[in-house]
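retry 2 of 3: previous attempt timed out while embedding coenzyme A. Reduced batch size to 1 and resubmitted. Inputs unchanged:
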Amino acid sequence: MRIRTARDEDWPEIHSFYSRIVDEGRTYTLPEGSGMEEARSLWMGTPSWRTVVAVDGERIAGTAKAGPSLPGRGSGIAGASFMVNPEHRGAGVGRALGEHVIEWCREAGFRGIRFNAVVETNEAAVRLWKSLGFEIVGTVPEAFDHVDHGPVGLHVMYRRL
Ligand SMILES: CC(C)(COP(=O)(O)OP(=O)(O)OC[C@H]1O[C@@H](n2cnc3c(N)ncnc32)[C@H](O)[C@@H]1OP(=O)(O)O)[C@@H](O)C(=O)NCCC(=O)NCCS
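retry 2 succeeded.
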């Protein structure tokens, strides 16, 4: 598996699992049911952010994006988002993307990485981020309307670089 910058032609394959993950209603605050173009601009079109893909043979196994979490004087801390194709879960893709993003953010000169909205019931993500050195710095209660559990908390997680 290798990780490289995403290209325009990657989008249809990314979108096939992006929409599955978002529409599932368990992990992301992104709008559900968004079409190809709206979703593309949300995932690939954030100015000054970089989107990467993890490629396994011919298939895109996962994707991540990272960049300044806030403009201006807040731009020294990065934000990032991750999605692994459900068919490729549990095989180390999320961990490889996480390590790649940490290294990229360090090289780009960010002082830390903040995740703004990790759903507290998202056990896989919370365990992965903790194992990569992130800590929960706070939880906004009832901030995410989970499809199974109703309102649950959103963790803010942080790792210093
Ligand atoms: C969270 C996510 C990125 C993990 O990706 P993955 O490729 O399946 O994860 P990996 O195989 O690299 O596993 C890394 C670690 O994650 C944790 N993990 C992964 N799947 C897990 C599961 N089903 N239950 C509990 N922990 C799990 C483990 O700590 C694992 O560590 P290990 O390798 O020592 O066992 C993936 O499940 C995903 O895309 N989920 C939907 C979108 C999402 O939640 N994105 C993150 C939003 S904050």
